[in-house]
Amino acid sequence: EIVLTQSPGTLSLSPGERATLSCRASQSVSSSYLAWYQQKPGQAPRLLIYGASSRATAIPDRFSGSGSGTDFTLTISRLEPEDFAVYYCQQYGSGLGTFGQGTKVEIK
Amino acid sequence: EVQLVQSGAEVKKPGESLKISCKGSGYSFTSHWIGWVRQMPGKGLEWMGIIYPGDSDTRYSPSFQGQVTISADKSISTAYLQWSSLKASDTAMYYCARLVFILKWGMDVWGQGTTVTVSS
């Protein structure tokens, strides 16, 4: 089972600042089957990025993903008030998926 | 509109059985895997397992193998998650979500979640 480790656990930033979230896998993620989700309190998660770098439908272009193999990054270029939330990475391979433990992006 | 609608909140006692549901609409239910995800209070997301409703092929995360049963009834476009004997530690929010191959197995549509509370 691939273990995903996200860092930092919490990111304290101000609106307008850039957020950089990391997701490291314990072994290589096949075919870049790596996704990022946003979850706000009381809501279901929302798909932001799939295939490590492709934005899902209706996701603003301030969200971008990069990386391959074992190291992946989610970048939010300029934080909007609605972006303060918890972000999870998730990988899929051979019928089994795992999530990272999450990074909370909070208002400084 | 593509959506997954889950059954309502449940309050159960330890040792009781439970089956919660996830009904898909607006797309070909038999053509996409459905996954189940657990979120314990104040905690992160955990992958439980997936099912392909077209043929009921099912895969479980090792942590959940033998603890729950995932099934589907394609005739009514519904997937299920069930327990034969609940424990207090099963208290959590449970989400179903659609996995899409062309999105590199991203989960693009999510149910609203079902809260399960297990308490004596």
Plain-language structure description:
The complex is a heterodimer of chains A (108) and B (120). With 108 residues, chain A is an all-beta fold. Chain A contains no helices and eleven strands. In chain A, strands 2, 4, 5, 6, 9, 10 and 11 form a seven-stranded mixed β-sheet that branches. By secondary structure, chain B is mainly beta. Chain B is 0% helix and 52% strand. The model of chain B has no long low-confidence stretch (mean pLDDT 97).
Describe the SSE topology.
The complex is a heterodimer of chains A (108) and B (120).
Chain A: E1 4-7, E2 10-13, E3 19-25, E4 34-39, E5 46-50, E6 54-55, E7 63-68, E8 71-76, E9 86-93, E10 96-99, E11 103-107
Chain B: E1 3-6, E2 10-12, E3 18-25, E4 34-39, E5 45-52, E6 57-60, E7 69-73, E8 78-83, E9 92-100, E10 106-110, E11 114-118
Parallel strand pairs in B: 2-11
Antiparallel strand pairs in B: 1-3, 3-8, 4-5, 4-9, 5-6, 7-8, 9-10, 9-11
Entry keywords:
heterodimer; A: 108 residues; mainly beta; 7-stranded mixed sheet; B: 120 residues; 4-stranded antiparallel sheet; 11 strands
Secondary-structure content class of chain B? mainly beta
Could you give a short account of the major beta sheet of chain A? 7 strands, mixed
Rg of chain B, rounded, reads 14 Å
Q: Report Rg of chain A.
A: 13 Å
Oligomer: heterodimer
> Largest interface here, residues on each chain?
A-B, 31 and 23 residues
The first-to-last residue Cα distance of chain A is 35 Å
Helix percentage range of chain A: under 10%
Overall outline of chain B: globular
Q: Tell me the number of strands of chain B.
A: 11
Number of helices of chain A: 0
- What is the H/E string of chain B? EEEEEEEEEEE
> H/E order of the elements of chain A?
EEEEEEEEEEE
Give a brief outline of the structure:
The complex is a heterodimer of chains A (108) and B (120). By secondary structure, chain A is mainly beta.
